[in-house]
Design a protein that fits this description.
Blueprint lengths: L7 E3 L21 E10 L2 E10 L6 E5 L2 E7 L4 H10 L1 H13 L12 E4 L2 E8 L6 E5 L2 E5 L5 H30 L6 E5 L6 E3 L4 E5 L7 H16 L5 H10 L3 H10 L1 H5 L2
Parallel strand pairs: 3-5, 7-9, 10-12
Antiparallel strand pairs: 1-4, 2-3, 4-5, 6-7, 8-9, 11-12
Helix pairs in contact: 3-4, 4-5, 4-6
Bound molecules: zinc ion (ZN).
The site of zinc ion (ZN) has 5 residues, from α4.
Length: 268
């Protein structure tokens, strides 16, 4: 199977000594506190959030689509938090840079908006007032006829169209590569997985996320070859990757491309 990571995380950077239980003060403290802070990093202002929890050991740093979050105990001094940020400034900058490139842009569902299909943008042409929903592609345009023209209605119609196009594409490529490499063609199914391009089981059933149809044909071929290689090796051993390379010599570049652009496939 092919997975991609959602989070980049550094946990428990500073192993602190466990806190001695202090005598309970008269005013009860909350078990969790959140606060906003800012620090200069590489000469630029970096806003970050501190989440303090009772009993938390050490300082943890996490970078995701919301920026930097620091996990600490209720009593960790701010200087220790800033020290941890300073010490890992390079890692933080790198992760922030990666995340700024892979932010999921919300999909618009209206005339003029584009959806990706086989690596090309298709411009939506929405026409409301139709009793029957139809979706037709004409070159770089996707004509969507719907009843009311609401976003949810358009999305449903476009997703259904993509699934209808995706299955024969994946099945044909799987058949082609199976024949080319002397494998019995597997049964091909679609999945709605959002974090996995493909999967394969011991019953020779291969599943591909319908979202993969947004990718370039060469990238789809890599995922197809990846899953077919699992028919020979049900693992990610060196022998498995050698098989992938034999079927798809460009696989390293294609895999990297897919990993770097996975956010685009998650938009809908
Ligand atoms: Zn795999």
């Amino acid at each position: 199977m092919v997975n991609f990571d959602l989070f980049d995380q550094l946990a428990n950077l500073l192993a602190s000594t466990p806190q001695k239980k202090k005598p309970r003060s008269s005013a009860p403290r909350p078990s969790k506190q959140e606060s906003e802070h800012a620090i200069a990093l590489d000469g630029r202002r970096l806003d970050y959030k501190v989440v303090r929890r009772r009993g938390r050991r050490g300082v943890g740093l996490k970078v995701d689509g919301n920026g930097l979050t620091v996990a600490a105990s209720l009593t960790t001094p701010l200087s220790a938090i800033e020290g941890a940020i300073d010490q890992h400034a390079g890692w933080i900058s790198k992760k922030l840079g990666e995340w700024s490139q892979r932010r999921v842009v919300p999909q618009r569902w209206e005339t003029g908006a584009t959806v990706g299909f086989l690596g090309e943008p298709l411009t939506l042409m929405v026409d409301a007032g139709h009793a029957r929903t139809t979706v037709e592609r004409a070159m770089a345009h996707l004509f969507v006829k719907v009843k009311k023209g609401e976003a949810a209605e358009i999305e449903k119609a476009v997703v259904a169209w993509m699934k209808k196009e995706a299955l024969p594409h994946f099945a044909q490529r799987a058949f082609f590569f199976a024949r080319l490499h002397q494998l019995t063609p597997p049964q091909v199914f679609l999945s709605s997985a959002n974090g996995r391009w493909g999967s394969c089981n011991s019953r020779r059933e291969v599943r591909f996320s319908w979202r993969l149809i947004k990718a370039r044909p060469a990238q789809i071929d890599y995922v197809v070859c990846h899953e077919l290689a699992h028919l020979r090796h049900m693992n990610h051993s060196a022998a498995f990757w050698a098989e992938v390379r034999r079927m798809c010599p460009e696989f390293e570049t294609l895999k990297k491309e897919l990993d770097q652009h996975d956010h685009q496939f998650r938009a809908f």
